[in-house]
Design brief:
alpha+beta, 5 helices, single chain, 25% strand, globular
Length: 208
């Protein structure tokens, strides 16, 4: 009997793989949008992480005809009033890249001492069935601070600038096994797991 399929609603290969690893314990067949050339581009123009995550999961699930788990994640810097927030991926404007976003963040925080560079990563997840109905949601956060220059080659996005104070390491420096425990995405995933296990039972995905 084939395993139930869960599609991770991200075209970012690194994020998709990170999420796939977090949910591997469920025993589902897991694919990402990279496995679906017909996947659509969903506008991430919601006002909140929750709105964006639900929108991405619902629209992609209806289009693909599969269960889709999507997330919307971002960095909220206290000294910037919570920016870049939902605009994290496009902080530096059209054509933004990880490098250009990181440069702009450092420019905006120039002159601030380490104790005023506090921030948190936020991750909101939403799970949609093939009809587009949202069947589960979760949220996780991880607090840290923004260092003065990128450190480490791991991760993606703002990871090389985001330091976990207790470890004195950025997400870019932390071993993936450690990040898989302490990150915002890992915490949201742990909240999602019980509902995911309930819905994807021994007989396959629940239909109601």
């Amino acid at each position: 009997m084939p395993r139930p399929l869960l599609v991770i609603g991200s075209a970012n290969r690194k994020k998709g793989q990170e999420l796939a690893n977090l949910f591997a314990v469920v025993g589902l067949e897991i694919k990402t949008l990279a496995d679906f050339p017909q996947a659509i581009e969903v506008a991430e123009d919601g006002a909140t992480f929750a709105e964006n995550a639900a929108r991405k999961a619902a629209q992609q699930a209806r289009h693909l005809g599969h269960w889709v788990l999507a997330d919307d994640s971002g960095l909220a810097v206290d000294a910037l009033g919570g920016e870049p927030g939902v605009r994290s991926a496009r902080f530096s404007g059209p054509g933004a890249t990880d490098a250009s976003n990181n440069r702009l963040l450092l420019e905006r925080l120039a002159g601030l001492p380490l104790e005023r560079r506090t921030a948190r990563f936020v991750c909101r997840m939403a799970l949609a069935d093939p009809s587009g109905a949202i069947r589960a949601e979760s949220e996780g956060a991880c607090r840290g601070r923004i260092v003065f220059e990128p450190r480490g080659d791991g991760g993606f996005g703002y990871d090389p600038l985001f330091e976990i104070v207790e470890y004195r390491r950025t997400f870019g420096e932390l071993h993936p096994a450690v990040k898989a425990v302490v990150s915002h995405r890992a915490r949201a995933a742990r909240q999602m797991l019980p509902r995911l296990l309930e819905l994807a039972g021994p007989e396959g995905w629940a239909t109601s």
